[in-house]
Amino acid sequence: MRPFQLTSRILLAVLCVFPAFLKAAPAEKPNIVFILADDLGYGDIGCFGQRKIRTPHLDQLAAEGTRLTQHYSGALVCAPSRCVLMTGKHLGHAEIRGNRQANLSFPEFKEGQHPISAETPTLPGSLRAAGYETAAIGKWGLGPVGSSGDPNKKGFDLFFGYNCQAIAHSFYPASLWRNDQRISINPKAIPGHLRKPEGEVRMEDYIGQTYTPDLMVKEAVDFIDRQADRADRKPFFLYLAFIEPHVAMHPPVKDVEEYPADWDPQPYRGECGYLPHPRPRAAYAAMVSGLDRHVGRVMAALEEKGFGKNTLVIFTSDNGATHEGKPGSPFHIGGADPAFFNSNGGLKGYKGSVYEGGLRVPTLVRFPGRIPAGNSQAAPGYFADWFPTLCAAAGVPTPENLDGENLWPILSSDSPASTRRPMLWVYPEYGGQVALRIGDYKVLRRNLNRKKNPGPWEVYHLTEDREETNNLAATKPDLIRQAIEILRKESSPNTLFPLAIPDSL
User: Fold this and answer.
1) Which of 165, 260, 468, 487 is the right S-S partner for 348, CB 3.0 to 4.6 Å?
2) pLDDT confidence of residue 41
3) CA dist., res. 104 & res. 332, Å (int)
4) What is the spatial distance between Cα 478 and Cα 473, in angstroms, rounded to a whole number?
5) With 90 as the cut, is the pLDDT of residue 413 above it?
6) Residue 466: CB partners within 8 Å, gap ≥ 6?
7) CATH number of the structural domain 423-490
8) What is the predicted pLDDT for the residue at 504?
């Protein structure tokens, strides 16, 4: 064969194979950073209507991405909301449906909440199995170190922070965890609960040596730096569960002084729990602004290391703003004043409530070139959706039998939302409550644990009545019957978190 003919045949063969090679080449998997605030109200940040507290970094995140204006948390309080997020199971199927301490069932554990079982699939577990490096930094609350719910056993290569939610009430604890090692950080810990009935209330009395949010941000930046320096670079999943603005309120003094002194006509003395503070409104604002700065530092680290364009960033909150305090007190729990800040954005209710103010949370998503910038998306969604959504975004197989729906087509193309399955919440605490969102309607019932006279059914049309002021229950018996049928079908028995599903109008 002549050289020219041989060369031509080789070239022809390469040209035939090359398109198939291009088609088979795997796309680069995106990095994922999921940032979870703690008790941040729907209206607590500027891009969701806040007018008093400065949140420039979150506002920039909104400008570069999409606001989800009808996104809901997994539950009304911390642990069950995080369980829904990690497992993709709504509260009718979730193992953890309340803030139960681990030692009630496992006396060998001295801290931490009831653990997720060993066999339960988790979002980080699926991502790690697909080649992701995974890290959880912040507050866990789904099982003590050494238990079946230990974050290192549930899909995280690295865990740093608070394992126990109760210890996270203090921003100056004696120690934090790095994987299974307890790390001492404050020789003199500051408790999260004290009272000061009389005398001067001083900020300095509740400030320790090492402020944990600073350590968490540093750990997050260090994790990002390590991923950039890896010779065998892998995609990463970084779960940042910050503790602000959950009380107790004891942010750095300099942060408090950034806000007006005349905001606070009276000190908070601890009468509604947690710590006293001389300037509680300014302290709350300082915590939200501190959270905003954390987000800014993380975003800057991603950009500096070249990860900005291939990283999907999600920001949201685990439930609504802090709930009411004692009757007659001007303060909510821990000295917070959500009314002053309009923290719930005009929605009804707060943390611990199935009304919109307890469940609807500010949510931002950013992914340059993949998610529209400066956009708002009103498609309803909730925490159960993040498991299938992030798997879809990463090209990772999704486990079967998840309760959530894949929102990725809606987020990435801004296409109109199709009709989705009802979203539901079955919550045995705070009197016992159930709620469903069915289309534009919300159906709920409260105080189910009352032996006599449980609360009545309530129905609201959320598009026309987002404040839930006009109860349509009397005119919607068929919708209530549909809600009852869904609740009974979608609620599995749970002996640790029992709640009898109502079966009548």
Assistant:
1) 468
2) 98
3) 28
4) 10
5) no
6) 346, 347, 356
7) 3.30.1120.10
8) 85
